[in-house]
Design goal:
192 residues; mainly alpha; Arc Repressor Mutant, subunit A; 2 domains; elongated
Amino acid sequence: MARYLLLPPESFEDILAWLNPDRELAGQMYVQLRHDLEKLFTWRGCSDPEGLTDEVFDRVAKKIHVVRPTYEGDPRFYFRAVANNLVKENYRQIKTHASLKGVESPIQQTPESRSEDVHHCLQVCLQELSTQKRDLIIAYYAKEKQAKIDHRRQLAQEYGVSVETLRVRIYRIGVLLAECIERCLKQKSKQN
């Protein structure tokens, strides 16, 4: 999936100009729009909200010269429409079905106890990672909003890799953590 960092500077400038003629205000709108789109993808259950947000900006950048002259209204609605189309595409790609026949109902837990179990398992699983992997994933998720983007760029530079390669590494560490947490939660449920 293409990333927003690959946008030519003129496309980024076109997007900012479309959002608002005042560059400073346009920059603020851009950051807020990225945040809103990432939230939308998260709420809709997409697995890579950040990557899908990047894809929205890539797609808008490719069509901005055609759409902008005739588009009426707030351009953020156009970005959201593109995001909604990506959500639909994402759902079509997933298409997983599982039969619930013969599956036993899990013991009902309160949200607080479930959250405590997940937190406990996360801590256990983080300790099972190598120091380098543990430090990397903690640093990767340490910031929010624009600071997060800047920090991830800096991390990529420190490791001498592209942001995309860094995301792949984080994804792989995340898969290891998810598997470990799942095993840990199963053990905890057997103990209860």
